[in-house]
Write a structure and sequence with these properties.
- The chain is α+β, with helices and mostly antiparallel strands.
- It is built from six helices and six strands.
- Strands 1-2 form a two-stranded antiparallel sheet. Strands 3-4 form a two-stranded antiparallel sheet. It has a two-stranded parallel ribbon with strand order 5-6.
- Helix 4 packs across helix 5 and helix 5 runs parallel beside helix 6.
- The radius of gyration is 17 Å and the shape is globular.
- The termini are far apart.
Length: 182
């Protein structure tokens, strides 16, 4: 539940979802049906008013904001519809950014991992470009590499193709499906 002005909105009610390892799942429904709210709960961005959220078999609904941030950084990758890239950073730096929270990874390990994921999404030749120097599809590929670089157990994509043309949208979905199969 959340407040919208003076109203209390019940965004989700009696929802239960279980996602198995390796499962590829799409969530569809009309605007305002609670899709993003559900993804925010699964991704530990929001906490439920009632009920519980379990990630990798562990209850997470009662964790502190810092504990949830650490869980997200180590367990969950996000691909957002608006890319959420940092405009002052290059593609390489945007992909490397989440790894800076992983203190156990040295510079060489970060370099290897970032290079691998930029290559995987076909952007190794654009690593020095800033987001405003990339097409929408290229920016989304940087966002995908950034989401994967921490090797998350769960990848959440909230409308990852909304801002892309139909051909690029299909390429992005095909890439995500191929990565899931791998």
């Amino acid at each position: 539940e959340y407040a919208l002005g003076t109203q209390v909105v019940i965004a989700l009610k009696d929802v239960s979802v279980s996602i198995a390892d390796g499962e590829f799942m799409a969530l569809a429904g009309p605007s305002g049906s609670g899709k993003s709210t559900l993804l925010n709960l699964i991704g530990c961005i929001d906490t439920p008013t009632r009920g519980s959220v379990m990630i990798t078999g562990t209850e997470v609904s009662n964790r502190t904001p810092d504990e949830l941030a650490d869980l997200r950084a180590r367990t969950i990758g996000f691909i957002f519809q608006t890319f959420n890239l940092l405009p002052v950073l290059s593609a390489w730096e945007n992909v490397e950014y989440p790894l800076l929270q992983h203190k156990q990874l040295g510079k060489a390990a970060r370099r290897e991992r970032v290079g691998h994921y930029l290559d995987l999404v076909g952007l190794d030749k654009h690593e020095h470009h800033r987001p405003n120097e990339l097409s929408g599809g290229q920016r989304q590929r940087v966002a995908i590499a950034r989401a994967l670089v921490s090797r998350p157990q769960l990848l959440i994509a909230d409308e990852p193709t909304t801002n892309l043309d139909s051909v690029t949208s299909r390429e992005v979905i095909d890439l995500i499906q191929a990565l899931n199969r791998q």
